[in-house]
Design a protein that fits this description.
With about 270 residues, the protein is an alpha/beta fold. It is built from nine helices and seven strands. The protein has a single domain, classed as Rossmann fold (3-Layer(aba) Sandwich), CATH 3.40.50.720. The longest helix has 29 residues. Bound molecules: nicotinamide-adenine-dinucleotide.
C-alpha cells in the first residue's frame, strides 16, 4: 500500500472519476475526505469506503466559497489530524462556445475549475506548512485542456489554466516539501462508474451512455479507454515516495490520445 497512514482530500466525489479516485486511494491505505457540493456524492462516497473497511468522512462544500473551503480543511484536520494529499477534481460540464455561452455560465464553470482549485490549494498548503510535513497536490486536467475543442470554451480554458497553475504553485511550494503535479484523464470508460453508482445505491445506469463513448474509443491508440481505477493508481504513484523527484509535471493517463499524430486514425 502506497499511502498507508496518509490523509487524502478529494473534491468532486461523484460515482465517476472523483469517487473512483477516492475509493482507489482508500485501497492504498489513505484516510479520505470526500468533498462535494452534492450531499449524496460526498456522503455515499465516504460510506462506500467505510463499508469496505476504510476510513472516510463526507463534507458538503462549494469549492468556490472561501468560508466553506476553510471550514472543510479545518474539519479534515480535526477528523484525521491533517491533510497529506489534495486532489482537485470538482467540475461542471457546460458544452458551449464563445458565441452562445452566457457570462454567468462562463463565470461559474471557470470559477469551479480555477477558483475552486486555487482556494483548496491555498488552505491545504497553509495547513501542510503548519503541519511541517511534506505533502502532495494533484490537479485533474483533461485532454480538452491540451487541445482546442470547439464549443467547450470554459472547460478548455479552465483546464489549460490549471496546467500552468500547477507549474507555478509547484515552484512556489518546492521549499516546503510540497510537490504539485497534475493528471490528465481522457474520455473515460463508463462501466466502472455504472458499477459504483449501483453499489452506492443509485438504481441501474442507462447503458445507452456507453454507446456515446464509442467514437472516443475508436480514436484512442490503445483501442480502449481508461477507467477511474487507472487514474487512482497514477495518483497514488505521484503522491508516493516513488515519485519523490517529480514536481510540476503533468501525467497523462489517456491511452495515448494526446501523443497521437492528428491525421492518423488508429481504428483504420
Ligand atoms: N468524465 C470524463 O470522461 C473526463 C475526461 C477528462 C477529464 N475529466 C475530469 O475528471 C474530473 C471528474 O470528472 P467526472 O466525469 O467524474 O465529473 P462528474 O460530473 O461526475 O463529477 C464532478 C463532481 O463535482 C461536483 N461539483 C460540481 N460543482 C462543485 C462545486 N462548486 N463544489 C464542489 N463540488 C462540485 C459535482 O457535484 C460532481 O460530484 C473533472 O475534473 C473532469 O474535468 C473527466
Amino acid at each position: 500500500m502506497k499511502l498507508q497512514g496518509k490523509v487524502a482530500l478529494i473534491t468532486g466525489t461523484s460515482p465517476n472519476i472523483g469517487g473512483g479516485i477516492a475509493e482507489g486511494l482508500a485501497e492504498e491505505g489513505a484516510k479520505v475526505v470526500c468533498v462535494d457540493i452534492t450531499p449524496d456524492n460526498a456522503h455515499q462516497c465516504a460510506e462506500a469506503i467505510n463499508q469496505r473497511g476504510g476510513q472516510a468522512i463526507g463534507a458538503v462544500c462549494d469549492v468556490t466559497d472561501e468560508a466553506q473551503v476553510q471550514a472543510t480543511v479545518a474539519r479534515a484536520s480535526e477528523a484525521f489530524g491533517g491533510v497529506d494529499l489534495l486532489v482537485n477534481s470538482a467540475v461542471i460540464f457546460i458544452q458551449k462556445g464563445v458565441l452562445d455561452m452566457s457570462l454567468a455560465e462562463w463565470t461559474r464553470q471557470t470559477s469551479i475549475i480555477l477558483t475552486g482549485t486555487f482556494l483548496f490549494t491555498k488552505y491545504v498548503a497553509q495547513l501542510m506548512i503548519a503541519q511541517q510535513r511534506p505533502g502532495n497536490i494533484i490537479n485533474i486536467i483533461s485532454t480538452a485542456g491540451h487541445q482546442g475543442q470547439p464549443r467547450n470554451v470554459g472547460y478548455c480554458t479552465g483546464k489549460s489554466g490549471l496546467l500552468n497553475f500547477t507549474r507555478s504553485v509547484a515552484m512556489e511550494l518546492v521549499d516546503y516539501g510540497i510537490r504539485v503535479n497534475s493528471l490528465t484523464p481522457t474520455a473515460t470508460d463508463p462501466q466502472e462508474s455504472f458499477e459504483r453508482a449501483e453499489r452506492w445505491g443509485r438504481g441501474p445506469s442507462d447503458q445507452r451512455i456507453a454507446q456515446m463513448f464509442e467514437p472516443f474509443r475508436k480514436g484512442a491508440p490503445m483501442h480502449k479507454l481508461p477507467s477511474p481505477k487507472h487514474y487512482a493508481k497514477a495518483i497514488a504513484f505521484l503522491a508516493s515516495e516513488e515519485a519523490e523527484m517529480i514536481t510540476g509535471m503533468d501525467l497523462r493517463v489517456d491511452a495515448g490520445t494526446i501523443a497521437r499524430y492528428w491525421a492518423w486514425n488508429p481504428s483504420e
